[in-house]
C-alpha cells in the first residue's frame, strides 16, 4: 500500500481530506442522514434553503437551459416551415410562356450546344469522352467557338489516344480561340492521361469523380452526367460563358428568394424549390430564352410573353443582377 510520501501527497493534505470526509475533528459519523434531516427541517421552518437543496436547484436550472435550442423564439419555427414551402409567384405560368417562346428550338444552344458536339456514330465510350472535352472547351467560350474547335478535333479522330499523341502546340492551334486555351491544353492532356490509366479511356460515372479531374468543375460534371450518362444529378448550368443566362433570368423573374451573386448560388437556390422532374429541362430552356429574348443588354421585353408577369420588366431597377465577385 502506498504511503502519503510515495503517492506525492503531503501529510497536511491527507489530514485535510480526512477532516473533510469526517465532518471535522471529533465529528461522529452520520447514520442514514439522521443529523442532516433535522437540519433541513429546521432551515425549512425558518424559511431558509439548505445548501444541498440550493445546489440541486441550481443544477436543475442549468440543465434546463442547456437543453433549450437557440433560435426557437416565438414565430421562428413557423417562418422556417414557411421557407420550406416557398416558391416564386406565377412561376408556372412564366415557365409555360417560356416553353411557348422556345417551341421553335432555333436558338444557338439547340444546335451548337455541348450535347451536339460529339460524333453520334462513335462508340459510346468515345462519345462520352467527346462530351467531356466539349464541356471543358466551352468554359468562358461561346457555343459557336466551342463547336468550331470540336469540329477541328473530330476531323483528326477525337479519342483519348489521339489526344495523348498530339503535341501541345498542335492541340493549342486546334482549340484556339476558346477562352484560356493554353490552360485547357494542359487540363485536357492531364485529364486524358487519367482517363486512360484509371478508367480504360472512359469517363467517370459520378459527379465526385468527375470534379476530381483537372479542369472539370461542378457545372461541367452535372452536365456530363446528364448528357454522357443520361443521369440528372442536379440543375446543371452550362459552363460560365453560358450559365450566366440561367443566373440572369432566374434573378429577373425572382425565381430566387434573394438576388444571387453567382451562377453556382443561383443553381443551389433553384434546386431548393424547383420540382426535380424539371431539372433536366430548365437549363437548355433558359439558355435559349436568354440567347434570343431575355438578352443581357436591351432585353426584348416587348416581344416577351412574360412582360406583364416579370418583376424586372415592371421595375425601374436594373435588369441584370449584381456580377459575381
TrEMBL record:
Residues 19-38 have a biased composition (Low complexity). It catalyses: 2'-deoxyribonucleotide-(2'-deoxyribose 5'-phosphate)-2'-deoxyribonucleotide-DNA = a 3'-end 2'-deoxyribonucleotide-(2,3-dehydro-2,3-deoxyribose 5'-phosphate)-DNA + a 5'-end 5'-phospho-2'-deoxyribonucleoside-DNA + H(+). Pfam families: HHH (PF00633), HhH-GPD (PF00730). Keywords: 4Fe-4S, DNA damage, DNA repair, Glycosidase, Hydrolase, Iron, Iron-sulfur, Lyase, Metal-binding, Mitochondrion, Nucleus, Transit peptide. The keyword DNA damage applies. It comes from the Eukaryota. Residues 16-62 are annotated as: Disordered. Its EC number is 3.2.2.-, 4.2.99.18. Its main location: nucleus. Transmembrane segments: none annotated. Its cofactor is [4Fe-4S] cluster. SMART domains: ENDO3c, FES. Residues 137-292 form the HhH-GPD domain. InterPro entries: DNA_glycosylase, Endonuclease-III-like_CS2, Endonuclease3_FeS-loop_motif, Endouclease-III_FeS-bd_BS, HhH-GPD_domain, HhH_base_excis_C, HhH_motif, NTH1. It is found in: Nucleus; Mitochondrion. HAMAP family: Endonuclease_III_Nth (MF_03183). Bifunctional DNA N-glycosylase with associated apurinic/apyrimidinic (AP) lyase function that catalyzes the first step in base excision repair (BER), the primary repair pathway for the repair of oxidative DNA damage. The DNA N-glycosylase activity releases the damaged DNA base from DNA by cleaving the N-glycosidic bond, leaving an AP site. The AP lyase activity cleaves the phosphodiester bond 3' to the AP site by a beta-elimination. Primarily recognizes and repairs oxidative base damage of pyrimidines. Interacts with YBX1. Belongs to the Nth/MutY family. This is Endonuclease III-like protein 1. It comes from Vulpes vulpes (Red fox). The lineage of its organism: Eukaryota, Metazoa, Chordata, Craniata, Vertebrata. The gene is NTHL1.
Amino acid at each position: 500500500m502506498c504511503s502519503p510520501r510515495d503517492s506525492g501527497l503531503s501529510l497536511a493534505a491527507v489530514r485535510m481530506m480526512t477532516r473533510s470526509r469526517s465532518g471535522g475533528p471529533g465529528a461522529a459519523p452520520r447514520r442514514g442522514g439522521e443529523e442532516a434531516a433535522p437540519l433541513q427541517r429546521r432551515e425549512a421552518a425558518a424559511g431558509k434553503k439548505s445548501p444541498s437543496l440550493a445546489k440541486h436547484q441550481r443544477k436543475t436550472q442549468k440543465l434546463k437551459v442547456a437543453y433549450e435550442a437557440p433560435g426557437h423564439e416565438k414565430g421562428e419555427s413557423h417562418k422556417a416551415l414557411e421557407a420550406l414551402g416557398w416558391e416564386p409567384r406565377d412561376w408556372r405560368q412564366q415557365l409555360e410562356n417560356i416553353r411557348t417562346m422556345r417551341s421553335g428550338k432555333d436558338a444557338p444552344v439547340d444546335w451548337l450546344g455541348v450535347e451536339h458536339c460529339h460524333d453520334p456514330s462513335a462508340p459510346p465510350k468515345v462519345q462520352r469522352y467527346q462530351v467531356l472535352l466539349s464541356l471543358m472547351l466551352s468554359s468562358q467560350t461561346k457555343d459557336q467557338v466551342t463547336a468550331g474547335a470540336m469540329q477541328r478535333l473530330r476531323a483528326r479522330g477525337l479519342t483519348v489516344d489521339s489526344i495523348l499523341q498530339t503535341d501541345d502546340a498542335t492541340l493549342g492551334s486546334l482549340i484556339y480561340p476558346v477562352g484560356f486555351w493554353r490552360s485547357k491544353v494542359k487540363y485536357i492532356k492531364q485529364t486524358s492521361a487519367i482517363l486512360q490509366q484509371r478508367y480504360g479511356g472512359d469517363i467517370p460515372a459520378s459527379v465526385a469523380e468527375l470534379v476530381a479531374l483537372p479542369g472539370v468543375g461542378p457545372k461541367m460534371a452535372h452536365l456530363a452526367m446528364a448528357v454522357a450518362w443520361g443521369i440528372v444529378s442536379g440543375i446543371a448550368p452550362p459552363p460560365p460563358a453560358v450559365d450566366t443566362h440561367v443566373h440572369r433570368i432566374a434573378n429577373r423573374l425572382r425565381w430566387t428568394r434573394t438576388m444571387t451573386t453567382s451562377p453556382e448560388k443561383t443553381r443551389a437556390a433553384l434546386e431548393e424549390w424547383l420540382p426535380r422532374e424539371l431539372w433536366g429541362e430548365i437549363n437548355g430552356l433558359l439558355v435559349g430564352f436568354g440567347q434570343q429574348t431575355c438578352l443581357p443588354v436591351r432585353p426584348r421585353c416587348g416581344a416577351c410573353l412574360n412582360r406583364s408577369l416579370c418583376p424586372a420588366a415592371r421595375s425601374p431597377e436594373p435588369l441584370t443582377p449584381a456580377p459575381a465577385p
